[in-house]
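_Full entry_
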Amino acid sequence: MPSHHTPLHAAAAQVVASFAGVAPTDLKVEQPPRPELGDLAIGCFAIAKAKQQSPAQVAQAIAAAFQPTELLASASAAGPFVNFRANRAAAERWLVDAALTGTLLPRTLGAGQTICIDYGSPNIAKHLAYHHIRGTTIGHALAQTFRALGYRVVGINFLGDWGTTHGMLLAAWHKWGAIDPIDVTGLNALYVKFREAAKADPTLEQEGRAWFKRLESGEPEVRALWEKFREVSWAEFESVYALLGIEYDEVRGESAYEPDMPRVLKELGPLLVESEGAQVVELEGEKTPILMMTKDGTTLYATRDVAAAEYRWATFHFTRSLYVVDRGQALHFRQLFKLLAKMGHEWAARCQHVPYGLVRLGGKKTSTRLGNVVLMKQVFDIAADEVRERIAAKNPEMSPAQVEQTARDVGIGAVIFANLASQREKDVDFDLDKAVSIEGDSGPYLQYSHARCASLARKAGEVIASSDGIDFTKLATDAEWAVTRRLYEFPDAVVRAGDACEPHVIAHYLLELAADYSRWYTMGNDDAALRVLCDDPATRRARLALAAAVQRVLREGLALLGIVAPDQM
């Protein structure tokens, strides 16, 4: 997507395009490396080549011919670049209106396109452990980002609810007695007990396989018990997803594709090769083949993944199908996509593995305080405990219920941000102190910046909803323009985050915006005339309008990451 879809970027592109006889959308509009060079820059390399001139000559000719426009005040040449200065007041008026009306992002970029995102996808009969946090939050952030850009998003939870492990659980249930009430903790304990016992008695493995065979065969009592396990597990998962604000568009486990297995194996027929009694497919460039059926005649994860991919294509006709799964599964997905292509599915090229690194509970203090906690919701509780007292002390007018809700929003936001702030393929050492800090690169710092904007509006007794009646020539400082320039970057950051499946691009952008806002806001500490709520009414309203735009972008940016933006904290 071109980076110049805002009117300011488009105006600069139009000036150069008109001179060079190219399409404005073919030009890359950037920010100069230093603010003193100007506000926007366009390189003249390709144009110079076509005109058989040097880039510097072309840049000089464009700058010399420039006539001011509504949004652009001046143009100058700097080597091979044409640098433009904005008409600040006009640029600020458009920016504030776009931010306050929610039209800053290109909302129709994804119109008519569908993106499937497979994320979260835990195994039933187990808790949502803390190590699930990265895949869950990265997937949710991508879903929110693509929705904001106008794509139809299908968020999929591909439950791990089929396979020999579920046979083992059924065997354990019948061996050591039923648990009442049925809950995930009890089911997981049964499974762990079975695995331990199987180390001493290898025949138990066979028992587990036999029970899975009975499940596969559709024995009514076995199937009913398995369905109960699934139901109880999903209720537990859903309670955690509710804390994160996640609602899946489709919850469809591996078991849903069991009826498709004969058809898939028939489709694979010409490609299947026998290897040690099992059925495999050889793939170009791969040392090991992909296993499709065991020698016992049971299907595998890969077989069900083929059926799931075919179902998603037939049902949604996706533009992209993303699998947000840890990087340890890279070989599996590489082989799966090669297999789909070998089967003749031209849409295999639209499938993409979105890998991410591990998350560890790092830092001595963190591990001591968290003890052996591995459950996602317990980590949320502990993070909320860390910030509750601070919020209550700073906001004595808040009711206990408001303090509790804000502490939960800040605690969960801190955990989410700590997992999204790094590039997704990097490992994350979760440090509780750093995560909940109100200073530094943290979620609470961004939430606090938002709350500070909201506090200004409360103190002023006025919520600015549009640019009507505001004199933007009153925004005369470089610090105010630095905030405006940063706000102009928001759409580009969001589009880049979607294109690269990298939520950290948005996280990094929000930290830069909060830093620019803080520099501007704190200028008033030493000079009352520079305060947002200064004595001059016209200047005060212009500054409140800019602060309102910052608040709106912070709130929207945090929402894209799945983080709530409190008005007080």
